[in-house]
Amino acid sequence: MTDFQATKALFALPEGVTYLDGNSLGPLPKAAPDRTARAMTGEWGEMLITGWNRAGWMDQPAKLGDRIGRLIGAPEGTTVLGDTLSIKVHQALAAALALRPERRVILSDSGNFPSDLYMAQGLIEQLGRGHELRVVAPEEVEAAIDDDVAVMMITEVDYRTGRRHDMPALIAKAHEVGALAIWDLAHSAGAVDVDVAAADTDFAVGCTYKFLNGGPGAPAFIHVAPRLIDEVQPALSGWLGHAEPFAFEPGYRPGPAIARMRVGTPPVLAMAALDAALDIWDRVDIGDLRAASLALSDRFIAGVKAACPGLELATPRAHAQRGSQVSFRHPQGYAVMQALIAQGVIGDFRAPDILRFGITPLYLDEADIDRAVEVLATILRKGSWDRPEFHARAAVT
Q1: Which of 163, 173, 210, 350 is catalytic?
Q2: Within a domain: 265
Q3: Within this chain, do residues 38 and 23 fall inside the same structural domain, yes or no?
């Protein structure tokens, strides 16, 4: 059994703060500052450019990719780290469309994160071959999978409501009609039980700064199914995805297997922090994590329902349809969230009216959940959210 009190002790959580925003940015692992400092002074400072070889910087994208791969059910050597999630979405989508040249439809849903949709829109314009981005309601995705679809691009857990798609079923349906599937795990990796191999997914992408706790701007990852990787031709053919980067050839030759999905120079200092964060996962059983997440979520939902009648639950109650966040609707959701944050209960807001709360058992327990309910209920009962400073919109919500 995973000892979640022990994992909580591995995070630097500010005194008096109940942190329910790990679905947006995970907190600082206590080991990360020393690990990053070692990379800065002991490696960069002492080794200078020789650190690429002596400290193994060049190999880190593959090594960290495999560590993440173990959390998402990916076989060794099929996941690599680097760049941003938007870049990885672009890579996966361009590669998938090239594998289905006779089809023109990209299927997604209205609960997908806008950046994924933006990547699709931009790629369609660049290709200029008449592709269509077809966006349907989340509950209509399965019915919309037909013979016209080239690629289904879905974020498993809706970033606003926390609704979880049945991705294995959707992937199976996509394969039945000859379509490929891209599975965005931004709100899944480190949050729910994921098995990309069992689901027979084609491409999976995700970020590492949310539930994986890699730090602000931590690099993203991409997984490609072993049966496809030798066919994939990267549209973003960066020099580190070349078969021999240091041959400096004028023409591109894709690297072997997943290495071809590398693009630019890896962020060494960010990888050091992520490496420290992933050490915590060596202590965690994903099944235990999922069970604890659902129990804490149920407790939070029940507490809010009893104490905060003015809030509307936006997250499905059924466990199979829920990720690791709980969302509520309130017409003044932004101001309510700012009042909560001022009281040391940190969640976040998503337009137009969603209060989001990440449920992360690595560092949250029942006492944290109960405190969050109590503070939220007091704010709503007293109307203390209705102050000018809580209505003033900041750049990040």
Answers
A1: 210
A2: yes
A3: no
275 given a catalytic annotation: no
Short-list 177, 192, 99, 89, CA closest to 141: 177
Active-site option among 21, 109, 158, 184: 184
Determine whether 195 is an active site residue.
no
| Counted domains in the chain | 2
Residue 48 lies in a domain: yes
Does residue 85 have a known ligand-binding role? yes
Q: Find the catalytic residue in 113, 221, 328, 363.
A: 113
Task: Check whether 114 is labelled as a binding-site residue.
Answer: yes
H/E run at residue 227: helix 226-229
293 and 276 together in one domain: no
Catalytic residue among 164, 262, 350, 356: 356
279 annotated to bind ligand: no
Q: State yes or no: 391 annotated in a binding site.
A: no
| pLDDT tens digits in sequence order for the chain, 397 residues long | 999 999 999 999 999 999 999 999 999 999 999 999 999 999 999 999 999 999 999 999 999 999 999 999 999 999 999 999 999 999 999 999 999 999 999 999 999 999 999 999 999 999 999 999 999 999 999 999 999 999 999 999 999 999 999 999 999 999 999 999 999 999 999 999 999 999 999 999 999 999 999 999 999 999 999 999 999 999 999 999 999 999 999 999 999 999 999 999 999 999 999 999 999 999 999 999 999 999 999 999 999 999 999 999 999 999 999 999 999 999 999 999 999 999 999 999 999 999 999 999 999 999 999 999 999 999 999 999 999 999 999 988 8
For residues 397 and 393, give the distance between their C-alpha atoms in angstroms, rounded to a whole number. Answer: 7
Q: Is 184 a catalytic residue?
A: yes
Domain that holds residue 354: 4-29+285-391
Q: What CATH number should be reported for the domain holding residue 99?
A: 3.40.640.10
Q: Is 283 a catalytic residue?
A: no
Do 197 and 245 belong to one domain?
Answer: yes
Structure tokens belonging to residue 352: 């137009």
Check the annotation: does 281 bind a ligand.
no
Angle between helices 268-281 and 60-72 (to 10 degrees): 30
Query: Considering Cα of 28, then 18, then 324, then 87, what sign does the dihedral take?
Result: negative
Q: Is residue 36 a known part of a binding site?
A: no
Q: Is 104 a catalytic residue?
A: no
Q: Which residues of 208-238 are buried (b: 16+ CB within 10 A; e: fewer)?
A: bbbbbbbbeebbbbbbbbeeebeebebbbbb
